[in-house]
Amino acid sequence: MGDVLFVLIGLLVGLAAGGAVGYYLHQVLSRKEIQARDLEAEELMNQVKTQAREIELAAKDEALKLRDEAEEEIKNRRREVQRQEQRLQAQRERLDARMDGLETRDRKIAAKEKELEVRAEKLNGMERAQLAELERISGLTVEQAKEILLDRIREEARRDAARVVREVELQAHEEADRKAREIITLAIQRTASDQVSEVTVSSVPLPNDEMKGRIIGRGGRNIRTIENITGVDLVVDDTPEAVIISSFDPVRREVARMALSKLVLDGRIHPGRIEKVVEKARQEVEAIIREEGERAAYESGVHGLHPEFIKLVGQLKFRSSYGQNCLQHSLETAYLAGTMAAELGANVTLAREAGLLHDIGKAVDHQVDGPHALIGADIAKRLNASEALANAIGAHHAEEEPQSLEAVLVQAADAISGARPGARRETLENYIRRVKTLEEIARSFAGVEEAFAIQAGREVRIIVQPDSITDAESTLLARDIAKKIEEGLDYPGQIKVTVIRETRAVDFAK
Question: What domain range includes position 10?
Answer without folding.
Answer: 1-115
